[in-house]
Amino acid sequence: MNLTKEQQEIYDGKQGATLAKVMQTLVRYGELFGADGMVPVTSKYNHLVTSFGLKALAPVYELMNQLIESGNVSKQKFSADPRPLDPNVPSSFLQDFVFKNFMYSKQDDYEKQLTQLGIMEKDAYTCTCYMDEVGNTPAMGEVLSWSESSAVVYANSVLGARCNRNSGIIDLMGSVVGYVPRFGLLTDEGRKATWIVKIETTKKPEAQLLGSAIGMKVMADVPYIVGLDKWLGGELDDAAKTYLKDFGAATASNGAVGLYHVENMTPEAVKYGKDLIAEDAKVYVVDDAELQRVYESYPVIWKKKDAKPKLCFMGCPHMSLQQLIDWTEKVSRSLKEAGRTRVCIPTVFTAAPAVLKKFQETPYAETLKATGVITSYICPLMYMNNPLSEKMPVITSSNKLRTYTSARYYTDAEILEQITKGGADK
């Protein structure tokens, strides 16, 4: 790897042993992926994927202490993934005992370290840091040092920033030293599409289901998606961004997609068009039958497959303000149709603290509260990692949550039916 004079001096320890270790780690990391050099991190803020004080992460806490004690804190303020616990989310005494004593017992201590390292503010904990309410929205072309897969794919695709799918802690190291290795999605060649995905459905495809289908097909490759723009209105407005947020998270978790292009919509597709497509790109056609095939392929890993759901999680990744408003209207309307006033399954809508604060300023907040739906800043995935939670029959419309936990996937329409009317079994 070719290093500049300044980078080589850091590597050689001229700015201290701790910073040298950070640079050496990033160089080794880059060499594994064929990086040809290091490039500056140019975004105003960073984002960390590690937000949870797991007891098992002792080496991370030791590393953080070394950085803090040596004065090598982040060169950028940063946001972090959602907190793992919220007392407002339903849980049993035993679940709470496991959470607090065996899983996230270091949470308070770890958050103190994150404060010392440079977190943006007390409540900057969300996987959707790029939302306007949070304020960590990179510009097109900026180089990032992020790891959170759903945030990386959004930043690359919807915002046109540049970031690889890094590992946890690598994100912090890039921000501490101010450089990241140049390879993959940081290069023009690495951002070219090796798949053309043709959308030939007869209706607007479910975002999470379409993302799942494409992710499982292309895996870590870059798809160029044709025909989706007509279902999204052809404009990259808030509704389209929300759709692509959920779509992208599914491509990144059900596969390993770090970047996709949507013809006529995403920034690079608008700027470069079909020039983004590599020679000999493969073709994948998605129609109604293909989406149904993918949906029916999902395993149900509940011990009792016909169990009555005990909990519903919505918001993985976190919901947008408009999603909270739209879902409030849908839940209220569906409950009225069913002759009910409150949801029949405990339901949690999760969103960034800043988004929830904004939502509380609207009249919809009281309306949603009256339905029995709980709003929370929690990470549903971290909740489900509890062995006792894993045994619960939990439903969701998040393909990311379905992939990483025992939660069972339903479409948005089926979720609405379940929580308001108790129906829509597969």
UniProtKB/TrEMBL annotation:
GO molecular function, one term: lyase activity
The protein, known as: DUF521 domain-containing protein
Domain Phosphomevalonate dehydratase large subunit-like: 1-412
Superkingdom of source: Bacteria
Keyword Transferase attributed: no
Alphabetical keyword list: Iron, Lyase
Keyword Lyase (UniProt): yes
